[in-house]
Amino acid sequence: MAGNWSFQTKLLHNKHKFDPFTKGVSVPIQHASTFHQEDYDHPPTFDYARSGNPTREALEEAIADLEGGTRGFAFSSGMAAISTAFLLLSKGDHVLVSEDVYGGTYRMVADVLTRFGIEHTFVNMTNLHEVATCIRPNTKVIYIETPSNPLLKVTDIQGITKLAKANGCLTFVDNTFMTPAIQRPLELGADIVLHSATKFLAGHSDVVAGLAVVKDEELGNKLYQLQNAFGAILGPQDCWLVLRGLKTLHVRLEQSSRTAFQLASFLRKHPAVRTVYYPGFHDHPGATIQRYQADGAGAVLSFELESEEAVKALVSNVHIPVFAVSLGAVESILSYPAKMSHAAMPKDERIKRGITDGLLRLSVGLENIDDLKADFQYALSRISERVHR
Ligand SMILES: *Cc1c(COP(=O)(O)O)cnc(C)c1O
Predict the structure, then answer these.
(1) Over the stretch 273-286, which tens digit does the pLDDT of each residue have?
(2) How far apart are CA 224 and CA 218, in angstroms?
(3) Is residue 127 domain-shared with residue 213, that is, in the same domain?
């Protein structure tokens, strides 16, 4: 019966709703690094906490279930999850990566994997034909992020997974922006789903964590070996924080997504705003694919002002959003990709990709829509004064 429950209900009512020993309605935090081996002849379930910990196991089972996978793995950060997944590759392999991939993933692929003889090509994943022409005999992984950061471009997950399978490649999907509440890539043929749980899954700007989920048993065993070998596991206290955050995932994302759409529509009408990127708009180039593969457009949008000067005026006059890196929190977060997430990218490369000096990214939190609108209305009015005077 539990199998038929909706996502919303499963967030709360699952195998870990009670502590089996005390019936406490919260997963106990087990800090022990080692476990007494009572039975000389039979190894215990848990022996050493890098290899397995009950609090971590609760989180790993929870995320596996929510993504429709068979095994989940919790890591010390999103980058630890992503880097560990890349360790499935060997010298001489080639990987195709979304050209507008997360900055940390870009660095891992471009600066680290190359030292180990793993080649890469950055591709525009919204164009399946272009992706197909970039596949080489040694291509082993196609790595995608959709919608992408910060321009919210949509990649056809099923199109990519079919192409990957036909060419003997695995598909990795970074599902941080959508979460399984909105998008479940394993159901669309992906092999590994990756998360920065630091963002929406935990949701409160108070923990750094990463997750990986697979469906295939053999791939699960390989990833487990790598998690244990590389050792970048998530500590029990942090596992508990992610588990706590997960309980409100559905309600948080539902409200933030609704507000994001309203705010995106408001910004689009404002004369000081040049463009708004949001996959929930009917005229977004990826709108149809987004509607097919996801149950919403999420809570992240970006918008372009005419200059850095205008950005400065806006940022100094908004009061509600925090001006910071990161996203997916209860509070709205405004970030400036040119100086934050994409600061390391050469300026011409950055501009070529549409990440101009006027671009801002907004992750919408749980504040009241009227308060947010009024805050942006005021800050935008300050720009017009400063720039047009
Ligand atoms: C933040 C983020 C990451 C990296 O996660 P950390 O938890 O910061 O290591 C990876 N991918 C995306 C899309 C992100 O937003």
Answers:
(1) 999 999 999 999 99
(2) 10
(3) yes
